[in-house]
């Protein structure tokens, strides 16, 4: 099912989308273009594990967008090593950068002892460092224009997903950096959020192939790339006024994930006291809060320890 166009929502805005030719990226780029955006569609065209390269999918995507009379340019630079070239391409073609959607990601499955460290580095460079680098190079442009929207990608796998530790590490890294950039962006009109989308794609096909056939078909039909588009577009739009949050999407649903802290147990001096404290700290009725900066975290901790 095609995504309805949000007419003029992104008029005259330039949006960089990495992983543009993937299951989420392709319908997202189409929807952004139809809503008036100048889309910089970045995709190296590698396999889910990061090997190989084919520019054909992103070239085909951009050809489809432009054939409908909308604005897009294909970018085939490697986000892990050439983020500066992606930013330079966007600025040279459209004169500005208004939003970045850090969708690119690769994954390699296997228990931790079987994951090669070179593979772990590759995953971290694409999923985390590449996203960070795009923010780094685009930030001065956004500061100058006093406007920006950044959507980083995390994953529900941060709650624990076996045989994917490198992927989870990289996606988890985006939680803290999103909160930090959200604080840095406040005086400059730059809003930064992260989203954990759910979509059937090549990336999850290996782990879902053993599902019963009926369940697999339901998963494919329900968790489509298109079913994430509205949430991501909302976060990247001028209409959004919220920053520093962790959102989820998929199946045309939107949720929010909480990163919080609970009241300390005081006066623990022995191992046994710490073991007992663990039980107390896991109680659901213990006072808690959701800090959005280190200052808020320390104020909460300080309030409790001074009692």
Automatic annotation (TrEMBL):
**Keyword Oxidoreductase annotated:** yes
Q: Does the keyword Oxidoreductase apply?
A: yes
**SUPFAM superfamilies, per the entry:** NAD(P)-binding Rossmann-fold domains (SSF51735)
InterPro entries xref list: NAD(P)-bd_dom_sf (IPR036291), Peroxisomal_Beta-Oxidation (IPR051687), SDR_fam (IPR002347)
Q: Which Gene3D superfamilies match?
A: NAD(P)-binding Rossmann-like Domain
Give any GO molecular function from the UniProt entry.
Answer: oxidoreductase activity
Q: Per UniProt, which keywords does this protein have? A: Oxidoreductase
Superkingdom, taxonomy of origin: Eukaryota
Q: Which family does it belong to?
A: Belongs to the short-chain dehydrogenases/reductases (SDR) family.
Protein name per Swiss-Prot or TrEMBL: Uncharacterized protein
Species of the source: Cylindrodendrum hubeiense
Please name the taxonomic classification of the source. Answer: Eukaryota, Fungi, Dikarya, Ascomycota, Pezizomycotina
